[in-house]
Design brief:
binds guanosine-5'-triphosphate, globular, two-component regulatory system, phosphoprotein, diguanylate cyclase activity, 50% helix, EC 2.7.7.65, Rossmann fold, diguanylate cyclase, Four Helix Bundle (Hemerythrin (Met), subunit A), alpha/beta, 4 domains, 549 residues, 19 helices
């Protein structure tokens, strides 16, 4: 948890940058010596390995400290050298090492001139968040401190390790996630078989593991996966992407039961499937009148349809084809249940809009697993389509749909819910003063904070630009006001830094609940929350206003 003052943190970040700049000088001296030696003895493997290791270290850290051009160049040379060193024969190819060094120095000078430094940090806040704990394994101490600050700024608490071997001696609170450099240990075993090393290292650890590293190769990702990693992030780390990924990983979305529609005229078989699938936790509706297809799909909104291939008076393939003609069902997965052995008919059925066949008699365990897998994939696809890439929140159309859907739901199952409109104050000034990229960082920080502070069941969206909409389920306006106020204060406590200057931003919000205005439909509720936001703006900003009836 960060409890330092803003000034001391700013100073620490600056000290880290200066320290890194100094280290680059030493690294370049080392490179100079190596290149000189290689000029005399171009295929000396020891020197080449040392050069590779120097490049590797620089490629992993330069970009993080704002030396983007240097980072890109050194990564390019590192990967050439890495390929050459993998060859079983001694190196036949000779590289223009002296030219490489010149290029790196030119890139360094260009970076030093532009000196782009963008960061974000948090000053002391009286609010104590339930901060998820990240264990960070990074051998490079400067980088370790830098990443720690950045992660803390986004509301994570961090425990750092300089070698993965030290993880085992740690009896303290288990972490929510481990972020580890894939070269994060000096153990010899890591060099000989990295996958085995990491598998051993994490075999008693029960939390997600994210690897990071300078290599952007397929093999680096594959090794991370085989080592038990849930992801691989390339350095320099994109902190916005990383923190957003972490927030999602640690606080996964509540998994709603899979919704399956079975279209089958053999009622015994349909009921048998239904009870099997329901036992596996799915919601199942059976349909035996093909004419009710559209109505049932519209009402039940299934994730997937299991379709008998031969129904009275109509084929399953015709049903699939009819569905495909309606835009919103064009991509709904349809799996045929059939004992049809005629290959031509099976092909026809697939071409008419089915996705797969499951053979009758049905292997129920296989069917359950297939349905789970297909639904997971189709939901993931939907989620990425509905998600705003900068904040990870729902896009405009999806949050509007969420309000509509929830409003309809509470007409059937009465329950209170709140609608909130949020807007960053004087955001135009942020863009005008610090540039659009910094503006984007501020927007994405709102996204991360919202996702950290609200429940998984709440619907959180980016309404547009710097405006956000929340649908808080089972929450009165009074509760919504206090939650939004807490979030507003936490946001105001974030100290952003850009080009050596630091600044903070505030939010205004408008809140309404459906009990306050029982005759309002979803659009009207949204408009009321927006009017309340307008009030907040016009009575001084940095505040939350309740809608008036
Ligand atoms: N960086 C960035 N800026 C955006 C984005 N979308 C909208 N904006 C900018 O957000 C600013 C919104 O400005 P205004 O609507 O005038 O409001 P404001 O400056 O926040 O002032 P108040 O809302 O009255 O406090 C505009 O300058 C838009 O260009 C975005 O995705 N990224």
């Amino acid at each position: 948890m960060i409890k330092a003052s803003s000034n001391s943190l700013t100073a620490r970040m600056e000290t880290l940058r200066i320290a890194y700049n100094k280290r680059l000088k030493t690294d370049f001296k080392e490179l100079d010596i190596l290149v000189e030696r290689l000029t005399d003895d171009a295929s000396n493997t020891e020197y080449l390995k040392l050069l590779h290791s120097c490049f590797h270290k620089m490629a992993g850290s330069a970009g993080t400290f704002g030396f983007q051009q240097l980072g890109r160049k050194v990564r390019e040379y590192e990967s050439l050298l890495s390929e050459a060193l993998k060859a079983p024969q001694p190196l036949h190819e000779t590289f223009p090492f002296a030219d490489w060094l010149d290029d790196l120095q030119t890139a360094l000078k260009a970076d030093q001139k532009s000196n782009p430094s963008v960061g974000i940090e948090t000053r002391q806040s009286s609010l104590s968040l339930e901060e998820p704990l990240i264990w960070l394994v990074e051998r490079d101490t400067i980088l370790q401190q830098y990443l720690t600050h950045q992660l803390q700024s986004f509301g994570f608490s961090v425990k750092s390790f300089s070698d993965a071997l030290h993880l085992a001696d740690n009896p303290a609170k288990p972490p929510d996630c481990i972020l580890v450099d894939h070269h994060g240990s000096q153990a010899k075993a890591l060099l000989s078989d990295p996958v085995l090393f990491w598998q051993e290292c994490f075999k008693t650890i029960d939390c997600p593991i994210l690897f990071m590293g300078a290599e952007e190769s397929f093999n680096a990702r594959l090794n991370a996966l085989r080592s038990g990693g849930h992801g691989y992030f390339v350095k320099p780390l994109d902190m916005i992407k990383l923190t957003s990924f972490l927030a999602q990983l640690i606080k996964p979305e509540k998994v709603e039961p899979e919704r399956l529609l079975i279209v089958e005229d053999d009622q015994d078989l349909a009921r048998h499937c239904q009870s099997y699938l329901e036992q596996a936790g799915m919601q199942v509706v059976c349909l035996d009148h093909p004419q009710a297809l559209f109505e049932t799909v519209s009402h039940f909104n299934p994730d997937l349809i299991l379709m008998d291939l031969w129904l009275p008076d109509i084929s399953g393939a015709e049903m699939a084809s009819l569905l495909r003609q309606v835009d919103r069902w064009a991509h709904m997965p349809v799996i045929y249940l059939s004992a049809e052995s005629n290959v031509h008919l099976r092909h026809q059925a697939l071409l008419m809009g089915g996705d797969a066949f499951v053979e009758k008699p049905l292997d129920m365990e296989f069917l359950v697993r297939l349905c789970q897998d297909r639904v997971r994939r189709v939901r993931h696809l939907k989620q990425t389509q509905n998600q705003d890439s900068l904040t990870g929140l729902l896009k405009h159309a999806s949050i509007k749909e969420a309000i509509q859907n929830h409003w309809e739901y509470v007409q059937r199952q009465p329950q209170v819910f709140s609608v909130v409109m949020l807007d960053i104050d004087h955001f135009k000034r942020v863009n005008d003063t610090y540039g659009h990229a910094v503006g984007d960082l501020v927007i994405s920080a709102v996204g991360t904070l919202l996702r950290q502070r609200f429940r998984n069941t709440d619907k959180l969206g980016r309404y547009g630009g710097e405006e956000f909409t929340l649908v808080l389920i089972d929450c009165t306006a009074e509760n919504a006001m206090s939650m939004v106020n807490a979030m507003r204060e936490a946001f105001a406590a974030i100290q952003f830094t850009a080009n050596g200057q630091s600044f903070s931003c505030t939010l205004s919000a408008g809140v309404v609940d459906n009990h306050l205005c029982p005759d309002d439909g979803p659009e009207a509720l949204l408009e009321r929350a927006d009017n309340a936001l307008y009030n907040a703006k016009h009575t001084g900003r940095n505040r939350t206003c309740l809608a008036t009836h």
